[in-house]
Amino acid sequence: MITQQEQIINKIAQDKIDFNLGVKILLEDPDYDFKALCSTLKFYIFNSIPEKTAYNTETYQKGIDTIPLKPTYTPIVLLKTFPTRIAFNKIAQLPENENKKTIISLLWIFKVTDTERRNTECKNGCGHFWHEFE
């Protein structure tokens, strides 16, 4: 069963909820838990990238390069500097004042990678129930 938070994440990725509004909904949720949300987003990104050895596709790099934040922000610098798994571990350990930037970065990357997956692998139907939102 998909949680309300997961539903929001997928609706953001599918442009059914405006990105900035979606971020606000996620961060203002009374049950907001940075570690849990960060973990969910990392899992979603890993699953949306078709190449499973390095998790470093052109689409993933495009996601990082287009994050709607200053490219000098710590989470983005870490994502650009380190291999995916190492970068994800490092950004999850950043101080609390970096949490919002981290969530925005991961959510944006997922939006980009999942859009690519929906336009390629899932183009003619995929059976992923999270791609079936009305």
Oligomer: single chain
Which regions are unreliable across 5 or more consecutive residues at pLDDT < 50? none
> Would you tell me the overall average pLDDT?
90
Give the total of beta strands.
Answer: 0
Specify the number of helices. 7
Approximately how much beta-strand content do the residues carry? under 5%
**Euclidean distance between termini CA atoms:** 17 Å
Radius of gyration (Å): 14 Å
Helix vs. strand class? mainly alpha
How would you sum up the global shape? globular
Question: Could you walk me through the main structural features you see in this protein, from its secondary elements to its overall organization?
Answer:
- With 134 residues, this protein is mainly alpha-helical.
- Helix content is 60%, strand content 0%.
- It has seven helices and no strands.
- The chain has helices at 4-13, 19-28, 34-48, 58-65, 74-81, 84-92, 99-119.
- Helix 1 (4-13) packs antiparallel against helix 2 (19-28) and helix 3 runs parallel beside helix 7 (99-119).
- The model has no long low-confidence stretch (mean pLDDT 90).
What's this, in brief?
The protein is mostly helical. The chain has seven helices and no strands. The model has no long low-confidence stretch (mean pLDDT 90).
